Amino acid sequence: MADPSSVPQSVEDKWLLLPAFLRVKGLVKQHIDSFNYFVDTDLKNILKANNKVTSDVDPKFWLKYTDIRVGRPDRTDAETMNRAITPHECRLRDTTYSAPILVTVSYTRGKYVVKKQNVQIGRMPIMLRSNKCVLTGMNYDQLARAIECPLDPGGYFIVKGTEKVILVQEQLSKNRIIVERDPTKGIVQASVTSSTHGGLKSKSYVVTKKGHIYLRHNSIHEDVPIVIALKALGLQSDKEILLATAGNTEAFKSIFSPNLEEAAKLGVFTRQQALDYIGARVKINRRVIGPRRPPWEDALEALATVVLAHVPVEGLDFRPKAVFVATMTRRVLMAVQDEKLVDDRDYVGNKRLELAGQLLALLFEDLFKRFNTELKSSIDKVLKKPSRTSEFDAGQTLQFMGDHITAGFVRAISTGNWSLKRFKMERAGVTHVLSRLSFIAALGMMTRISSQFEKTRKVSGPRALQPSQWGMLCPSDTPEGEACGLVKNLALMTHITTDVEEEPIMRLAFMLGLEDVCLATGAEMYDHNNFMVHVNGMIIGLTRTPLHFVAKLRKLRRAGRISEFVSVYINHHHRAVYIACDGGRICRPLIIVERGQSLVTAEHVVLLRAGKMTFDAFLKLGLVEYLDVNEENDSRIALYERDIVFSGPGRTTHLEIEPFTILGAVAGLIPYPHHNQSPRNTYQCAMGKQAIGAIAYNQLNRIDTLLYLLVYPQKPMVKTRTIELVGYESLPAGQNATVAVMSYSGYDIEDALILNKSSLDRGYGRCQVMRKNVTMIRKYPNGTYDRLADAPQEENGGVQKRYDIIQPDGIAGVGERVDPGDIYVNKQTPTNANDNTAGMDGSVVASYRNTPMSYKSPVAGYIDKVLLTETENDNTLVKVLIRQTRRPELGDKFSSRHGQKGVCGLIVNQEDMPFNDQGVCPDSIMNPHGFPSRMTVGKMIELISGKAGVLTGKLRYGTAFGGSKVEDMSKLLMEHGFSYSGKDMLTSGITGESLEAFVFFGPIYYQKLKHMVMDKMHARARGPRATLTRQPTEGRSRDGGLRLGEMERDCLIGYGATQLLLERLMISSDKFEVCACETCGLMGYNGWCPYCKTSQKVAKLTIPYAAKLLFQELMAMNVMPRMVLEDV
Amino acid sequence: MATRSLNDPRRQVKVGTERVYDVANTEFPGNYPGEDHSWNLKKFRKDLKVEIQRLSRRSVEFDLVGVDASIANAFRRILIAEVPTIAIEHVYVWNNTSVIHDEVLAQRLGLVPLDVDPSQMEYHNGVATDRNTLVFRLQVACERRKGAAREETDPEKLYKNSNVLAKHLTWVPQGEQESFFADHPPKPTNDNILLAKLRPGQEIEIELHAIKGQGNEHAKWSPVGTASYRLLPNIQIHRPIPPPLAEKFQKCFSPGVISVDPTTKEVKVADPRRETMSREVLRHPEFEGMVSLSRIRDFFLFKIETESAYPPERLFTEAVTVFRDKVKRLKVAAQALAVEAAQAREGEADADADAAMETD
Fold first, then answer.
1. pLDDT digits 0-9 by tens, A1043-1065
2. Residues 730..769 of A with a Cβ closer than 8 Å to B: which?
3. Which parts of the sequence belong to the RNA polymerase beta subunit protrusion domain (chain A) (predicted)?
4. Which residue of A618, A862, A1008, B355 has the fewest C-beta atoms within 10 A of its own C-beta?
């Protein structure tokens, strides 16, 4: 034992492990690891499971896949010399960044077996920065040559030119028993969702119903009494069943005994009787071939393959399954007796995260199976022919199989619809377009987790912050509104596991002295000395020395003998040891503490700092290990060294690497978040993604649909460790504004900001908006094609103003100013483009019709870039990027990093701004009323730290749970002749007298948000109307009217303003003159009633066109609306 | 020396712990019974004092004593917003293959201070003439420097013209300008302002028109970096500071403000001008009641920094000129108004008379 008096030395800078970790794993390692696992391992497993194609016609024929691999991404164009491709080229050319899937096959050709290598069966989209991607392993220089940003995390796909992310999906873990209570119905149920590698999924329950326990499964019509189920599984005697479920506990025995009676009442005593009982209730899947089987065989098959499918039944040995059902029953009994012994669905340890790799694996398996059936049918088609000129070569068929796999991948990823009937999977919205609004938006998207839970249901449980999220999922970063708490984000050091083989681990467990559970009776299983051992939900054995067993397994893990992602923990309530090595578990690294001492010492940190040690070395030396949520909850983790407990049952086992890693990458941008009211941090997480700034090093080479850039982005004065680690300093989104917290002019109420006009003149908040405009130069089936034409000449030889920027090639010149209405691509389409009757040679071009692209925005822009390229299907693509540079104006939205957004309320000349003794004018003025209710103390501290930073010429830290101390910062202010409190004495710029109050004055990092007035402001007097109703159109994009809605209407009614109501609702909208007949009440025309055949009593009246339309529609439905007319 | 003591409470703006007291001047006519505070040129002349404290090539510091805050502020505002200068306004981009966009480059060019005496130019009235427009050219192309070492990474050594600086702006004389500006050709005041960065193959070819303007239209025409003032700090020690606390007391102020006698530890205010009003002394309870801080209401420590064509000492007089022009204009307007009012009164009387006639 270590001497308890030796106080553990604080290892300075152990946070350096974090950058080391990120260097190895990167910020989006979960996506990349998952994809790599899929491409390298899972693909081969899928192939192995579906590797043979035979023919129904020729029994001697077979084709076997022996190997599969994914090649390097290449260009698909037919006539290309250089096949190397970069992701950026795909983005620009609207193509897919994909690599060929190559297989090795051997098959019979006549009498011979032929082997063919590298046959392409399709193309797979490649995840950027995965190990198949060309960018992996490139240095800065090479990345620059590939026009790729070194800070871009990768982890997404490029499909048809758009960047697509497959979001992480959260699910309940498979193959684990979940016990729940329904207090309203008084039901306790244990459920298991079984999932095997074949993709089969089924849910089995053990439930209580009126004091009895039943086994329930979808494939059995009605609930089977548990005793019958256990009898069918081979536990013959009642004694054995009682022991296997209730053990020797009297309480459980009494709860369980009615079940035994029930079985006896139903006359089920033997296994055969039980099987017959179940067999009569099994849903039979009609098979056409073969004779009818007796019901007990159906029961046997159902029990062996569908019920609890994940527990293997080898050679009709039902013992493991019987033990599993018995365990489930016991868990139900425990929950009946003690209602606390239920599981929590929302507990993060009971969750699994599904990543791109798993989803792609399912998709590939589906596509590959379909590919094989198609291959088989086309082979059959050939073999069916009685005589052939040459020997049939299946390799030829294989080569000309079409592109179903490629198309399947592209369709699924670009639409996000994963509909795989084979696996009963129907999911929409799996993929999303990577948001490139700001660097942080893109990064935040890569760490996002979406839940399968329905958004509309009003339950708080799944949305609430779970204590087990600690360190794994960011507590701040979640959206507001309907998806609140359902969409989560990973914390900084989180890692998601991939599958690890379980057989070696089971073998190892037996070698460590496990007893096979199949050899044990119930009495032994539930003996108070024995602990059951589960591996990935399967019960495999018993141990008498669980602590020892777990310790030994952990030692082996730390020594690297088994994967570092295998987790072992003891659950004392269940009296069980759980070993998990399945994929999708959330885990994070922690420093191991032994004998009260952190294993990571100052010497290690020195080596780390010198670059002589990597994170992997720490892992290998057993100084650091990964813990998943379950094991984390079985450990004692100290936050700081001073919290380490040396001995006793609460002995510390691990030490946190750095507390601020409980936050994610997005929340990590907030300075002093631990001083803010927590919702404010959540708001900032949403807003940080809307901030305009720099998005990537290749931002000026990109042609995105919409790109917002800040002209002069600055790195924040007050930064955090996270900011340094994610590269926010290199791609910032904001500026350090000098802020005076005071009221000014009344145009600053409700969070409005006052801006200094001179600051705007000098470039504060100036941003650029670049918009992509695309057109295709199409070739039509009849041989005609679009063309680009130069500007049309007027009679006097001049050119119309709106064509003046068109160059001889028919496209506006780069750098030209585009005024509203100007034409920038003068495209012409043949008038007979859809006419297929003409000659196919394209010689019959009747004439061309102008289909130009004209500039719509009300503000002039500049042509930034023009791209002419060819797409994958040989159409010419024209992309024109138009740029606007905007200075902030009234109504533009700004926000600090503390969830404090506001719009610009007034722009004030510099001479009217207050100034301090040094003559400094603020860039913006913020109203102090923003503080009391928001309680964003972090913002105030940011100001003080920032001010101290400016005065000392250093950047300061606002890292969560650390950072520069307020007291130190205030001292610095004082030393530089400023007030300790950060408040300055200002002079009014208007009166020239001192202000009566001291004003909190200093730099705060402000973000300009993408919501700008120019894109939103809208008004109309007259304008377009909808064709059907003749009412004004809706929405700004259609120059629509502003709706006088129901509530507004009610106000006018309440006020009695009938004429105004009439004007708003009819005269200014869709007034229409109709002729109505006073006799029949129907509408006529031209003063004539076609129903009464008279024009005598026809009156003219004005009604809304919509009303007229309604009457006519009713008439079309055989309803006759009559108007009753009266003189007023 | 000013005629009134700095310790006159009426001259003091009091600085408290949480706020500032007595911000406004109370000495206006009728406020104090029996005192005459009507404006008096003789008294004003006696009280007014302007004294330069420090003058450098780019800045001037001077005291302005004996005027009201409104007057001092008027000069400050005029300096920032209404003293004209010359700046680039129109940018004609012939070619720009650099990474910096045309609009951004144009904005940067506008902010370059030009060394042209604004009095020599007229305001631009829509038509460019050689009296109101100066033409500059910026034509820079970047090339590889031959013979640079292979492993060299410094762009300056690798390439020619890797940085486009203000000195690359060349003046193109128009009409009479050549002779007119012969002894002082227009150029940027600072040669080393970075405008853009170039790499081999990139070039910039731009024509620029500079015109006269004022800071209230765009900050680029503001002649000053900052023009501001602060009030003279005043520290009154009411009770002697206990010797053990003398050092601490001294530290509560800016260096050099408080002198402590090395032997007696007697504390004296040495140079209140240096005080930055950190109010540190008010934060410590042990000094409560011993000292009071204030500032002198009509004692302005003016500071003007400039990077413009004006030498700093000329700026203030230039502001005074603008100020006088404004006063003149106001005077004319006021007189016109008076005349108008008189006429209106006459007209009204006439109309009344007419009306009376008609009713008759």
1. 999 999 999 999 999 999 999 99
2. 757-758, 761-763, 766, 768
3. 26-389
4. B355
Q: A555: buried, middle or exposed (CB in 10 Å: 19+, 13-18, 0-12)?
A: exposed
Measured distance CA(A372)–CA(A64) in Å, rounded: 11
Residue A513: inside a domain, yes or no? yes
Judgement on whether residues B312 and B183 belong to the same structural domain of the protein = no
Judge whether B66 is closer than 8 Å to chain A, CB to CB: no
Q: Is A1015 one of the catalytic residues?
A: no
Tell me: pLDDT of A921 over 80: yes
- Residue B1: pLDDT above 50? no
Domain total of chain A: 6
Residue A843, pLDDT above cutoff 70: no
Point out the residue among A763, A978, A991 whose CB comes nearest to the CB of B107. Answer: A763
Q: What is the mean pLDDT of chain A?
A: 89
Those residues whose C-beta lies under 8 Å from the C-beta of residue A225, and which sit 6 or more positions away, are A212, A213, A214, A215, A259, A262, A263, A266, A268
Q: Work out the angle between the directed axes of helices A250-265 and A319-337 (0-180°, nearest 10).
A: 120
A980 and B15 in contact by Cβ < 8 A? no
**One domain for residues A359 and A217:** no
pLDDT tens track for A749-808: 999 999 999 999 999 999 999 999 999 998 888 788 888 988 888 888 888 889 999 999
Q: A883 contacts in B (CB within 8 Å)?
A: 101
Contact B278/A768, CB-based, under 8 Å?
no
Nearest to A126 by CA among A137, A135, A138: A135
Within 10 Å of residue A253's Cβ, how many Cβ atoms?
Answer: 16
Burial class (CB in 10 A: 0-12, 13-18, 19+), A1086: exposed
Q: What residue numbers bound the domain in which B350 lies?
A: 1-83+225-235+298-360
Q: Please list, residue by residue across A954-979, b when 16 or more beta carbons sit within 10 angstroms of its beta carbon and e when fewer do.
A: ebbbbbbebbbebeebbebbbbebbb
Q: How far apart are CA A326 and CA A235, in angstroms?
A: 10
> Are A543 and A606 within 8 A, CB to CB?
no
Quick: pLDDT tens for A569-625: 999 888 899 999 988 899 999 999 988 888 888 888 888 888 888 888 888 888 999
Report the DSSP beta bridge partners of residue B229. B302
* Closest partner CB to A815 (pick from B21, B102, B280): B102
- What is A418-462 written as a DSSP string? EEEGGGTEEE---EEEPP-SSHHHHHHHHTEEEESS-SSS--SGG
Whether residue A627 contacts residue A405, with contact meaning beta carbons closer than 8 Å, is answered with no
CATH number at residue B25: 3.30.1360.10
Q: Tally DSSP H helices, then E strands, for chain A.
A: 30, 52
Interface membership of A816 toward B (CB under 8 Å): no
Domain hosting A1059: range is 1036-1116
B102 shares its domain with B171: yes
State yes or no: pLDDT of B2 exceeds 60: no
Q: Where is B49: in which H helix or E strand?
A: strand B49-55
Q: Distance between CA B217 and CA B39 in Å, rounded?
A: 34
Mean pLDDT along residues A253-263: 87
Q: Does any domain span residue A859?
A: yes
Checking if the pLDDT of A265 tops 90, the result is no
- Checking if the pLDDT of A482 tops 90, the result is no
CB A581 within 8 A of CB A505: yes
What is the C-alpha separation between A168 and A355, in angstroms, rounded? 5
User: Which of B 168-207 lie inside 8 A of A, CB atoms?
Assistant: none
d(CA A735, CA A710): 9
Flag if B18 and A998 touch (Cβ within 8 Å).
yes
> Cβ of A996 and B20 within 8 Å?
yes
Please report, as a single letter, which amino acid is at residue A281.
R
Measure CB to CB from residue A761 to each of B76, B80, B218 and give the nearest one.
B218
CATH of the domain at A1086: 3.90.1800.10
